[in-house]
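Project standup — Tuesday

K.O.: blocked on the structure for the chain from last sprint. Re-posting the sequence here as requested.
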Amino acid sequence: MANGYAGGDCRTNKRVAVVGGGLVGALQACSLAKRGFSVDLYEARDDIRLLEHVPGRSINLALSVRGRAALRMVDVEEEVVSTGIKMPSRLIHDLDGSTKALPYGTSDQYILSVDRRKLNESLLTTAEANPKVKIHFSHKLKKIHLEKGEAVFQDASNNEVVVSADVFFGCDGAYSAMRSQMMRTNHMNFNQTYIPHGYMELNMPPTEDGKHRMPTNHLHIWPRDEFMMIALPNQGGSFTVTLFMPFHNFDEVHAGGEKAVLEFFNTYFPDSVPLLGEEGLVDTFMKSKGLPMVSVKCNPYHYKDKAVIMGDAAHAMVPFYGQGMNCGLEDCVVMSELMDMYNNDFSKVLPAYTVHRNPDAEAMCDLAVYNYTEMRHLVNSRYFLFRKKVDNLLHWLMPNSYVPLYTMVTFSRRRYHEVIKKKRRQDKFVDGGLAVLAAMPLVAIAIAARQNMLDYTKITSLFGSIEGLRLPWE
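H.V.: unblocked you, prediction finished:
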């Protein structure tokens, strides 16, 4: 689909309302206004640009191709990229303190560590600069009558504010009030799954001279099978460190007090303790708790030509592929492309959006869960590292035919559900080839024995029993 703004009968006389002023909502407001629509943006929180501390999630964001395409659409990509930190590889921290870099792709492929708050502020400022956009902060959605095109918000003074719009865009997050209201009217299938792991954010401060304590051009990972820790660099010399592990582990460490915190980190993440600082680490851990992570799937995303949900409101995902934000921002690109295709006719655009986007978003939700297993466990596997090398070699030999999974997800805009299909085909090809290669020595031995070139005693003396043979990566 083309990415642009169509001319002709654009039907931009409709008034639209965007519920939620986070990343996706602010971007969607920018996109709609750029098309000529009058947009009212309603955000339940106060203006974050005026707050010293913003409550809620602060997990660093990894910006990649899909998100950058969305930011480019509203002319803010260059501003955001200029303040991001390039990360062309993972840096794996082993238990013994050694590290190894695993490149994400080719030398010119990288993800960007960006600040969630600064990105949100930039998008809000861009939206506000357009005279077509009016932002209403401290307006919490209470109820909506979609057939009438009316919604009731509660303002900062607890007054009810009734508003009208021709189309409502729900971009209000994983616990979406807009989605809940639509479910009262729509026959919507809905699934919400909490994973048994939580997360806790820690802070690695800069050195006394304002420098980073670790190399900056990596996403740092401490994989420990059942749990893991990651760190992303920030401007100003700090790292945002996030610990992911089962809730019962958080409870056990908390129950043991300050001594147990240090014992836990010295046992599983010993190289991080002097970087985090014992005092700050203990203080943050004891004052915090493991926070939940939820995956949301639902269908359909729209109600007639009256309303649609986007971003986490439609497809919240766990944060292990760095695609939550990128997928949400790409929603806005897909919506824009469909508006081009159907000339802003929402009676066609919104149903097409559900049909087009739902299989991709659900595929990405599944990939995000899979990648948690990869990040905390498989990166320690010799076979995983071997397969990475095989994937990279095949991609180098056949760049257009064989593309690694991560490259397709992160460095292209190939549809997510098609990515999974292609990965399965490639895995079948590679696994079949490796099986043939692994079997060749056994076949050669069998042929030799058949021809009396080797007898069984010589075979077993060289290789042990056949049952004991192991592939080098097992």
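K.O.: great, moving the ticket to review. The mean pLDDT is 88. The first strand starts at residue 15 and ends at 19.
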